[in-house]
C-alpha cells in the first residue's frame, strides 16, 4: 500500500503533467479501496482536514440547515442514484423529504446479471411515485445480441434511460469486476444500443475509468458516430480535471456531465476544488447536472446531498443554480416522447385522452399517479 501522503503528492504531481493517462485514476482507486473499508479514518485524516480547511468558504461555512433554507425551494434532482439495490430507496424517503429532493434518477447494480432484478425494483419505485423517481436500467449483456431486445423492451415499457453502464472500467474497485462491462465505449453492441437510445431520445449514463487516454478516445468516437444520442458522463468530476471536461464539451454537443458533488466537496482524494470547476460550468451552463452516486465512498448519502447544496452555493448565480440543480436534466427527460406501448395503455384506460404529443414524463403520470 502506498502511504497516503505519497499518494497525495504523486496525484498532485501527476495532475500537473499533460496527458498523464491513467495515473490519477490508478492512484485514486487504490485509495478508494482504503477509504471504503475505513471511512471514519479517511474522513478524520490530517489530509482530509487540510483539504476542508483549504476551502475559501471554510471560515464562514454555512450549516446544512442554512443551505436548505436558502436553496430548498429550488427544484433539485439527483441524476445518478443506486438506491434500487436492496430496495434502499424505501428507507430514504424521509431523508429526501428533509433534504428537499424533488427527483431521483433511480437504478441499482451496474452491468451485471443482478441488475436485471434491481432494474425491476427501480420500476416498482417509479410506479409508486412517478412524479419523483426516474427509472434507468443496466441489466443487459452488451456483448450479446439479446441486449438490443432488452433495451428496446425496457425503453418501450417506459424506462427513461440506460444507466449506470460500465462502458470501461480498469481501476474502480467495484465496477472493474462486473461481468458485463465493456472494454471501451464502442465495445460489443454499444453502437447499436446508442442508436436505440437515439430512436427513443433516451439518455445513456456511462461509467468510464480511467477518464482519459484510449477510453476517452473511444468515447469521442461514439459521440461523433452517434450525434443524435444523448450521452451522460457519469461522475465526470471523479479523478478528472476541469480541463478534460472542457475539451469534451467544446468538441461535442451530445455529451452532458454528471457532477458527483460529494467527490469534489468531501473526498480528500479530489485534486480539484469546486472553485476549479466553476469556469467550465459557467462556460457550458446547459451541460451539467448534480448527483450523489448514493454517497459512494462518503460517510453517508446525506453527506452527498449536502455536497450538492454546497456546489449550488458555490455557483451562486440563481439562473445557473436552477439549471444545474434541475433544469438541465429535466430538459433531457422532457424531450422523450411517450412510446407506442404507453399510448396504447393510456387509451385503454381512457380513449378520450389525446396521446399524439404526449411525453414519457406525462405518460408515466397518467398511467401511475394514484
Ligand atoms: Zn454510480
Automatic annotation (TrEMBL):
Molecular function in Gene Ontology: hydrolase activity
Pfam families noted in UniProt: Amidohydro_2 (PF04909)
Stored InterPro entries: Amidohydro-rel (IPR006680), Metal_Hydrolase (IPR032466)
The UniProt record lists the keyword Transmembrane: yes
Keywords: Hydrolase, Membrane, Transmembrane, Transmembrane helix
Transmembrane residue ranges: 7-28
Residue ranges annotated for the Amidohydrolase-related domain, each copy included: 106-328
Protein name: TIM-barrel fold metal-dependent hydrolase
Biological source species: Paenibacillus aceris
Amino acid at each position: 500500500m502506498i502511504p497516503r501522503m505519497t499518494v497525495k503528492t504523486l496525484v498532485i504531481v501527476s495532475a500537473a503533467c499533460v496527458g498523464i493517462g491513467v495515473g490519477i485514476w490508478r492512484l485514486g482507486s487504490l485509495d478508494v479501496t482504503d477509504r471504503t473499508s475505513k471511512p471514519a479514518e479517511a474522513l478524520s485524516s490530517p489530509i482530509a482536514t487540510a483539504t476542508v480547511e483549504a476551502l475559501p468558504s471554510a471560515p464562514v461555512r454555512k450549516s446544512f440547515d442554512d443551505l436548505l433554507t436558502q436553496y430548498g425551494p429550488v427544484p433539485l434532482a439527483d441524476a445518478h442514484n443506486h438506491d434500487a439495490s436492496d430496495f434502499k430507496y424505501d428507507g430514504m424517503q424521509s431523508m429526501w423529504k428533509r433534504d428537499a429532493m424533488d427527483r431521483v434518477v433511480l437504478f441499482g447494480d451496474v452491468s451485471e446479471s443482478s441488475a436485471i432484478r434491481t432494474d425491476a425494483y427501480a420500476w416498482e419505485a417509479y410506479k409508486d411515485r412517478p412524479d419523483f423517481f426516474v427509472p434507468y436500467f443496466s441489466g443487459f449483456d452488451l456483448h450479446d445480441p439479446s441486449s438490443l431486445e432488452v433495451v428496446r423492451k425496457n425503453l418501450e415499457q417506459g424506462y427513461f434511460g440506460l444507466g449506470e453502464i460500465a462502458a470501461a472500467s480498469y481501476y474502480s474497485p467495484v465496477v472493474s469486476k462486473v461481468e458485463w462491462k465493456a472494454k471501451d465505449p464502442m465495445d460489443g453492441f454499444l453502437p447499436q444500443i446508442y442508436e436505440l437510445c437515439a430512436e427513443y431520445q433516451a439518455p445513456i449514463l456511462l461509467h468510464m475509468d480511467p477518464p482519459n487516454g484510449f477510453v476517452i478516445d473511444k468515447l469521442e468516437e461514439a459521440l461523433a458516430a452517434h450525434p443524435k444520442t444523448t450521452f451522460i458522463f457519469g461522475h465526470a468530476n471523479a479523478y478528472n480535471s476541469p480541463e478534460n471536461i472542457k475539451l469534451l464539451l467544446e468538441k461535442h454537443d451530445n455529451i452532458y456531465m454528471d457532477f458527483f458533488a460529494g467527490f469534489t466537496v468531501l473526498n480528500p482524494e479530489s485534486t480539484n476544488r469546486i472553485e476549479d470547476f466553476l469556469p467550465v460550468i459557467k462556460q457550458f451552463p446547459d451541460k451539467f447536472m448534480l448527483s450523489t452516486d448514493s454517497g459512494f465512498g462518503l460517510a453517508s448519502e446525506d453527506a452527498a446531498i449536502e455536497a450538492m447544496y454546497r456546489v449550488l452555493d458555490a455557483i451562486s448565480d440563481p439562473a445557473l443554480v436552477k439549471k444545474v440543480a434541475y433544469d438541465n436534466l429535466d430538459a433531457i427527460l422532457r424531450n422523450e416522447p411517450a412510446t407506442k406501448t404507453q399510448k396504447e395503455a393510456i387509451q385503454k384506460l381512457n380513449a378520450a385522452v389525446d396521446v399524439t404529443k404526449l411525453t414519457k414524463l406525462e405518460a408515466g403520470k397518467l398511467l401511475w399517479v394514484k
